[in-house]
Amino acid sequence: MAIDTNITFTDKDVNKNLYRQKTYYTLVIEQEVLAENKAEADHKFMDFGGIDHSQINHEITTQKEGVETYMVDANYSDSGKTEYMGKVLYDLSDPHAKEEGYVEIDTSADEVMPDVVDTQIQLEADLARGK
């Protein structure tokens, strides 16, 4: 009975044994995306992120001294929560940031910033209630 293998063998290998070992690795991929909100970010991660399975092949393995790769596979197991990292804002340290288009990721900015109109409506409502 024959076996499927990538090992090259000849008559000089008679009486040698063929061994196979599966080794499981944990691969972590941490990706980032710019989005309007968490829902859009989750959608982009799900549809456009992740791993390119065509790149999971024997080329990522070490093959020396007669060791050949028989199989390489990657399977999804878990995802962490989508985490807010910061907001793209004009660089406050540069007085010409708006004119020059200088922006930065501000890690201290609120994820959901109140709209000017919403703030004005809230102020008017507070005044009407006597606050």
Q: In words, what does this structure look like?
A:
The chain is an alpha+beta fold. The chain has two domains: 1-76, no CATH class; 83-131, no CATH class. The chain has helices spanning 38-48, 97-100, 116-128, and strands at residues 87-90, 103-106. The protein is elongated, with a radius of gyration of 28 Å. The model has no long low-confidence stretch (mean pLDDT 86).
Short summary of the structure?
With 131 residues, the chain is α+β, with helices and mostly antiparallel strands. The protein folds into two domains: 1-76, no CATH class; 83-131, no CATH class.
Give the rounded overall mean pLDDT.
86
Element order: H for helix, E for strand: HEHEH
The largest sheet, given as strand count, sense and whether it forms a barrel, is: 2 strands, antiparallel
Provide the spatial order of strands within the biggest beta sheet: 1-2
Structural class: alpha+beta
The percent of residues in helical segments reads: 10-25%
How much of the residues is beta strand, in percent? 5-15%
Number of helices: 3
Number of domains: 2
